[in-house]
Amino acid sequence: MDFGSDVENRFWPQKWPMVAMLGIIWGLAACSSSPDYTSGDRSAAGSDYAATASSGHGLAASAPRKSSSSLYREVNVKKSFIPKGKHARKYRRRLNPKYITIHSTQNYSSSADAWRHSLALNNGKLRASKRKGGNRIGYLTWHYTVDQYRAVQHLPCNEQGEHADFDGPGNNYSLAIEMCENRGNSRAATIERTAKLSAWLMKEYDIPLRNVVPHYHWERKGLSKPHKNCPHFLLDNGRPGAKWQWFLAKVNKYYKSITSGSPTLVSTTTVNTRPIPVITQAQPRVLQSTPRPTVRKTTTTRSKPKPKVRYHTVRRGDTLYSLSRKYGTSVTAIQKANGMKSTLLINGKRLRIP
């Protein structure tokens, strides 16, 4: 939904509190690309710390548990694009997404939720120094901001943001998601919503799990700390570890729910192991119902003289079970008398009835 919508304006304050604005500008400058960053060089590298959460091979997937659109609705995405041709969208740089970069705002002001960040971006409040080798457009910008209630989209997914490493692969090839940290916001709910959004973006743009990376992944050469501790609450001692693997497992769970479902082992040569008889046009297959057990005792049958041999010519609709009822014998006896290994009957065939 456009920012100028009358419906949305009912929920947004008309004036931006100065304290909240300064908090957002300070927090996002700390998380996103700052004027001191230089470009990174990891365009060809997948995330080493994401590999263990990938799915294995040799598995056949069952049907997805839910549709992609259903998961998208759970994310509760609200579109509020920065006005085209203004502020951070003065310069349109095309994006073909290959990565998803996860950030945290590091902005703890109680009012700094997803809508407030959207308002700041739409009004061009998040400025940065534009310089060669640094920020390319004079603004900070990214694609989604997530809080406990919603995910607000600021840029189309085919446009680059300015959030990671300036003219490096982080900005040139990744979609950026910022997670809110404002007081009163549920971190657990925000992480869950971010995992769902990441899974949906993976499916939508064919992005592998190993390319879901933290801001830390993009190197900022020339700085004393080239790798940013971001998102700090998903890193261990400033580096991807157990917490990041835990987050990726969530992403992978939601991704499987809309793609492969639960993998199951299958034979490498045959999927359907049920035998299927070959039936020609002249030899139609005749279905057989379950035979009713015979009431004749084996001992009595053996003690009596063999009955006179009878014959029956198969007609359409005949089954071994119907013939056994008609002639007072059993399916097994008819099969044995005629050397049959299956229950298939062929029209016109003469059967011996014991």
From TrEMBL:
Superkingdom, natural source: Bacteria
Catalytic activity from the UniProt record: Hydrolyzes the link between N-acetylmuramoyl residues and L-amino acid residues in certain cell-wall glycopeptides
Matches recorded under InterPro entries: Amidase/PGRP_sf, Amidase_domain, LysM, LysM_dom_sf, NAMLAA_amidase_2
Cross-referenced SMART domains: Ami_2 (SM00644), LysM (SM00257)
Molecular-function GO term, any one: N-acetylmuramoyl-L-alanine amidase activity
Residue ranges of every copy of the LysM domain listed in the record: 310-353
Name this protein carries in UniProt: N-acetylmuramoyl-L-alanine amidase
Keywords associated with the record: Cell wall biogenesis/degradation, Competence, Hydrolase, Sporulation
GO BP annotations, alphabetical order: cell wall organization; establishment of competence for transformation; peptidoglycan catabolic process; peptidoglycan turnover; sporulation resulting in formation of a cellular spore
Source species taxonomy: Bacteria, Pseudomonadati, Verrucomicrobiota, Verrucomicrobiia, Verrucomicrobiales
EC number assigned by the record: 3.5.1.28
